[in-house]
From TrEMBL, chain A:
This is Ferredoxin. It comes from the Bacteria. Gene3D superfamilies: 3.30.70.20. Pfam families: Fer4_13. GO terms for molecular function: iron-sulfur cluster binding; metal ion binding. Keywords: Electron transport, Iron, Iron-sulfur, Metal-binding, Transport. SUPFAM superfamilies: 4Fe-4S ferredoxins. It comes from Methylobacterium soli.
UniProtKB/TrEMBL annotation, chain B:
This is FAD-dependent oxidoreductase. Signal peptide: none annotated. Pfam families: Pyr_redox_2, Reductase_C. Keywords: FAD, Flavoprotein, Oxidoreductase.
Length: 75, 439
C-alpha cells in the first residue's frame, strides 16, 4: 500500500492514530508522523483511518484489494 | 494511406504535479495516449519527508513513493530529461535523442536546489544540497556515520529542518544565515525570532548576519572548513547548502516561451505565455515551475513552491487542457505550507511578502504556541501557526476574502492584539532575470 496525508489539511485530530496506531503517530502537540508504505496486513486498519479522518486528509493506493474481511485476515 | 496515430497529452515532470495532473486528466475522462517524462529514474515520490524523516533515518528513501490514486495507463519515460521543445512541430526532445509529439503539453518540471556558487567547491565530497530522493539518501548515509560537526548554509525551511534532524541525531550544528533570524524571508524576524529561540534551545550554533565566503577542501577533495566573511573559519565534515531553489526552465531555452530561473510565465488559466506574451493554447504549466497571475493577490505574478499548489494547480491545468479555448477557468490559489522542526508544527497560509504589520492573535510567542496574522495596507494577507493548526482555517478564510487586518478581534481566549513590524529583510539582489528567447 502507498499512503500520503495532505498535511495542509491535517488538523491533528489524531483519529488515524487510534484507528491504525502502528502506521500513524502524533508527536508533540500536532506533528503527524506516518508510514507511507504500510504492509498489506494493515489494510483494514488503514481503511478505518481513512474513514475516521474528520478532514479527509488521507489518500491510499492499494486499499481496493480488500474485497472481504476474509481476504483481509487471510494469508 | 494509413493515418498516423493522433498524438496525445505529454506531461514533462514526474513528481507530485505531474502525477496529480495525469490522474486529473484520467478522472475527467481523457482516454487518449498519455506520456509522462521524468529526469529522475524514480517513479513519483513525496518530497516533504526527505528533509525530516528520511534524514532522521525513520523512513527509507524509497518508502516515499507517492500513491497512484487513479489507473493512468501512461507511458512512463523515467530517467530521461526533456532537453528541448519545438512548438511549431509540437514535439518534445528527450535526452536519449527521441522526440515525443504532443497535442497538449503539461510542463511540471519543478525546481532544483540552488547550488553553491562555484561548481568546484560544490563538488567537494561532504557538500550536499537537499532536494531529491537521491540527495536525501546520500546525506542520510553520511549522517548515519556520525559526523562530529555539520555546517548548514541558509536558515530557510530546509536548513532549519536539517538542523533539527542533526540535533536529534546528536550531531553538532552550525547554521549560518545572512539575516537576523531563521525563516526571515518567509515569516519575518518577529516570528523568525521564535525559531532562533528553538535553535538556541536545541544547541544549534546559530550565526545570524553571517556570510559563508568559501568552502575549503582538503587534498582528497573532501570538505574541510568554511570561511566566513570577516575571517572566521568553521571546521565541519559536512556542509548542507540550503539556499533555496531555482526553477527548472533551462531546457526551454530557444522554445520562445517567457521563462527564466524564476519560472515559466503563464496566463491566469495556466497556459504558458510565448515570448510575445500570447498564451499557447496547447502548453500548460503547473507546480513549482509555473508563475501565474493569482487573482487572490490582485493578479500579481507568483509562483508557489509548495505541495498543495502542485496538487491543486495540476488538477486545474488538467481541467483547462480538456476544455475548449473559450472555456478556460482562471486559477485562484491561497498558498499554504507546513514544516515540522524542533518538535513544533509550523503551518502557514497566504503570501507574507510585502507585509507591513504582524499581530499575534492567539497564544503567545513565549509559549511557542501561537497564531500570527500578517497585514498589508490594512488587509489580512497571510497567517502562520506554531502548534495552533486548528485556528488556521478560520484565518485562511479571512485572508482569501481580503478582510481587514487584524481579521478576528473577539475570538475565545484571545489576548489583547498588539501590532508589530514583521521585520522582513530587504529584497535580495537577484541576478537579473534571464529571459529565454529564441536563439
Amino acid at each position: 500500500m502507498r499512503v500520503v496525508v495532505d498535511l495542509n489539511r491535517c488538523q491533528g485530530y489524531a483519529q488515524c492514530c487510534y484507528a491504525a496506531p502502528e502506521s500513524f503517530v502524533l508527536r508533540g502537540h500536532e506533528i503527524l508522523f506516518y508510514d507511507p508504505a504500510p504492509p498489506a496486513a494493515k489494510r483494514g486498519e488503514i481503511a478505518r483511518a481513512v474513514q475516521a479522518c474528520p478532514v479527509r486528509a488521507i489518500s491510499v493506493e492499494g486499499l481496493d484489494a480488500v474485497t472481504s474481511p476474509e481476504v483481509e485476515t487471510g494469508s | 494511406m494509413s493515418a498516423l496515430p493522433e498524438p496525445g497529452i505529454v506531461i514533462v515532470g514526474a513528481s507530485l504535479a505531474g502525477l496529480r495532473g495525469a490522474e486529473a486528466l484520467r478522472l475527467r475522462g481523457y482516454t487518449g495516449p498519455l506520456d509522462i517524462v521524468g529526469d529522475e529514474p524514480h517513479p513519483p515520490y513525496d518530497r516533504p519527508p526527505l528533509s525530516k524523516h528520511v534524514l532522521a533515518g525513520e523512513l527509507a528513501p524509497d518508502a516515499t513513493a507517492l500513491p497512484n490514486l487513479v489507473p493512468l495507463r501512461a507511458n512512463w519515460h523515467l530517467g530521461v530529461a526533456a532537453t528541448g521543445l519545438d512548438r511549431e512541430a509540437r514535439t518534445l526532445r528527450l535526452a536519449d535523442g527521441r522526440a515525443l509529439a504532443y497535442r497538449r503539453l503539461l510542463i511540471a518540471t519543478g525546481a532544483q536546489a540552488r547550488p553553491w556558487p562555484g561548481p568546484e567547491r560544490a563538488a567537494l565530497s561532504g557538500v550536499f544540497t537537499l532536494r531529491g530522493r537521491d540527495d536525501a539518501a546520500a546525506l542520510r548515509a553520511v549522517l548515519a556515520k556520525g559526523p562530529r560537526h555539520v555546517l548548514i548554509v541558509g536558515g530557510g525551511l530546509i536548513g532549519c529542518e536539517a538542523a533539527s534532524c542533526c540535533r536529534d541525531l546528536g550531531i553538532d550544528v552550525t547554521l549560518v544565515d545572512p539575516n537576523p533570524t531563521p525563516l526571515a524571508r518567509s515569516l519575518g524576524t518577529f516570528v523568525g525570532g521564535v525559531v532562533a529561540g528553538l535553535l538556541e534551545r536545541s544547541g544549534v550554533d546559530f550565526r545570524p548576519g553571517a556570510h559563508v565566503e568559501l568552502l575549503e577542501g582538503d587534498s582528497f577533495g573532501g570538505f574541510r572548513r568554511a570561511h566566513l566573511r570577516g575571517g572566521e573559519t568553521i571546521e565541519a565534515e559536512v556542509a548542507i547548502v540550503a539556499l533555496g531553489a531555482v526553477r527548472s526552465t533551462g531546457w526551454l531555452a530557444g522554445a520562445g516561451l517567457m521563462a527564466d530561473a524564476g519560472g515559466l510565465t503563464c496566463d491566469g488559466a495556466c497556459r504558458a505565455l510565448a515570448a510575445d506574451g500570447t498564451p499557447c493554447e496547447d502548453i500548460y504549466a503547473a507546480g513549482d515551475v509555473a508563475r501565474w497571475p493569482n487573482p487572490i493577490y490582485s493578479g500579481r505574478l507568483i509562483s508557489v513552491e509548495h505541495w498543495g499548489n502542485a496538487v491543486e494547480q495540476a488538477g486545474h491545468a488538467a481541467r483547462n487542457m480538456l476544455a475548449a479555448p473559450d472555456d478556460q477557468e482562471p486559477y485562484a490559489h491561497l498558498p499554504a505550507f507546513w514544516s515540522s522542526q524542533f518538535g513544533i508544527n509550523i503551518k502557514a497560509v497566504g503570501l507574507s511578502e510585502g507585509a507591513d504589520s504582524v499581530a499575534i492573535v492567539q497564544g503567545s510567542r513565549a509559549a511557542r504556541r501561537f497564531l500570527a496574522v500578517y497585514g498589508r495596507a490594512g488587509r489580512s494577507i497571510a497567517a502562520v501557526s506554531f502548534d495552533e493548526a486548528r485556528w488556521l482555517p478560520a484565518y485562511a478564510e479571512q485572508i482569501r476574502a481580503g478582510r481587514p487586518f487584524p481579521p478576528i478581534r473577539d475570538a475565545t481566549d484571545q489576548a489583547r492584539i498588539e501590532i508589530h513590524a514583521p521585520g522582513f529583510p530587504p529584497r535580495r539582489s537577484e541576478p537579473a532575470a534571464r529571459e529565454i528567447v529564441d536563439a
